[in-house]
Amino acid sequence: MSFFRHNPSLSVNGVNDEAGLPKRKLDLVFNSNGSRKLSDEDLFKLEPILRKYGYNESLYQKARVISIVNHKGGVGKTTTTACLGETLVRKGFKVLLIDFDPQGNLSQILGVENPEVQVADCLFTNLPLPTVAILENLWLAPSDISLAEIEVDLLSKVGGDVRLRHKIMPILEDYDYILIDCPPSLSKLTVSALNASNATLITMLPESSSLKGLNSLLNRISEVKEHTNRDLVLDGIVFTMVRKNSVHDGFKEAIRSSMSVDFRVFDTEIRHLVDFQKSQALQATLGSLNASSEAYRCYKDFCDEYIAYLQIVKP
Ligand SMILES: Nc1ncnc2c1ncn2[C@@H]1O[C@H](COP(=O)(O)OP(=O)(O)O)[C@@H](O)[C@H]1O
Ligand SMILES: [Mg+2]
After folding, report:
1. Which residues are near ligand 2, the ion (C-beta closer than 5 Å)?
2. Which atom of ligand 1 sits closest to the CA of residue 82?
């Protein structure tokens, strides 16, 4: 509705008909105060027409959807998703975390095991994304290994890799941020997450092994932007598990001086601290365990820097 408010010359019924929806369907949904919703099929037809008229989620909807990505495992993606989510919530934002890794680590560390309904159950059905409350204003859409079983459907079914986007579209106005924890690969799951996002954030260890495959990751992000989601931007890289030694120092320096100016290598670094492992073993969020710990402060500082950066770059 916000899109039509910004474009008063566009006719709701005209767009409705151009998308081939039943007569006055869009108008009925808009005037139903949320009691009627568009089906996945309607959204599928509507999206290209709206885009033709300049629709862009990041301009007209509320949530910024950020995929936390890296082709490697063990680089702090899941930890960053959970901790950035918590620090955003403690700054007053409403946040949904989506576990999009079949390993289900994000769900586990937040204490959601064997979820009754999970992301995999909804991608090819009419079910909405399942959400479990974690803290006030923090929700999780959980996953486990079942997500691996539907990966083949993402490849074979029509619009497979935009199904997640279509599940997120109707809830964009319910959140300020939606963070997607991606699997450690450049698989269809990661591409689906990128298709559903406005932005990406790369987590990286400051070690030479991190460079291996980095170009493939950057290329994949560019390909998605070029072919299926032109709104996608790379917000930047955050260093995780940083230790005070000359190898880490040298690598950080090299990355900072060699990276493109199009995105940020964030100044805040997430230090290697045992408190992260402790809180995850206890299935408690860092802030609820000890909001004055150094571990929590790392993400709080990173969150502040990220938000300040978005004020500059967000359209
Ligand atoms: N800053 C950190 N300091 C110490 N351990 C960390 C830190 N960040 C993550 N870990 C631990 O490292 C492991 C991998 O982190 P995780 O966030 O799951 O990475 P990924 O999602 O990229 O595989 C986990 O056991 C986690 O507890
Ligand atoms: Mg992970």
Report:
1. 77-78, 105
2. 17
Give me the chain's average pLDDT, please.
91
Question: Do 99 and 12 share a structural domain?
Answer: no
Given a contact cutoff of 8 angstroms between Cβ atoms, the answer to whether 83 and 181 are in contact is no
**With 80 as the cut, is the pLDDT of residue 123 above it?**
yes
For residues 236 and 200, what is the distance between their CA atoms, to the nearest angstrom?
7
Q: Which domain holds residue 43?
A: 2-55
Query: Do residues 122 and 49 share a domain?
Result: no
DSSP H or E stretch at residue 67: strand 64-69
Query: Cα dist. 122→117, 126, 155 in Å?
Result: 8, 6, 16
Give the integer Cα–Cα distance in Å for 40 and 107.
26
Number of Cβ within 10 Å of residue 13's Cβ equals 13
| Domain identity same for 200 and 283 | yes
Same domain, 74 and 13: no
